[in-house]
Amino acid sequence: MYAVIKTGGKQYRVSAGEKLKVEQITAEIGTEIVLDQVLFVGSGDDVTLGSPLVSGATVTARVLAHGRGDKVRIYKMRRRKHYRKTQGHRQNFTEIEIVGIGSSATQGSGANASSEHAQARE
Predict the structure, then answer these.
(1) Closest CA relative to residue 86, chosen from 103, 71, 74
(2) Whole-angstrom Cα distance, residue 19 to residue 10?
């Protein structure tokens, strides 16, 4: 079983037991977090596509570590103008391990999910 989740403005395809580095999440090391922005859930030929999210689907992950990525060097120069500028940047990240992918037993299709969303707004 696999899922496509959205966190930190990026999308990731994840499955149980997988480790990945995502944008920094404010959580203590060793705690389990629930990622509820699930865009897609698949298991073999059985797939569920959200519009935009799959209702009732969650991904549980354990925080393994916090860290900083490699330094990215930014160098700006204007030729013949005696202008040189060097800057560096290190992005913070959180390393997580996917514990499990959960979904509700009554997952509707995209049409049902959108009609339920429309009824909830009224």
Answers:
(1) 74
(2) 16
Q: Are strands 83-89 and 46-49 parallel, antiparallel or unpaired?
A: unpaired
Residues 6+ away with beta carbon under 8 Å from 40: 3, 4, 47, 48, 49, 50, 54
> Using one digit for the tens of pLDDT, what is the confidence trace for 80-103?
999 999 999 999 999 999 999 987
Instruction: Return the DSSP state at 121.
Output: H
Tell me which amino acid residue 92 is. N
Higher pLDDT: 106 or 110? It is 110
Round the average pLDDT of the chain to a whole number and report it: 87
- Which residue blocks in the chain are alpha helix, DSSP H? 110-121
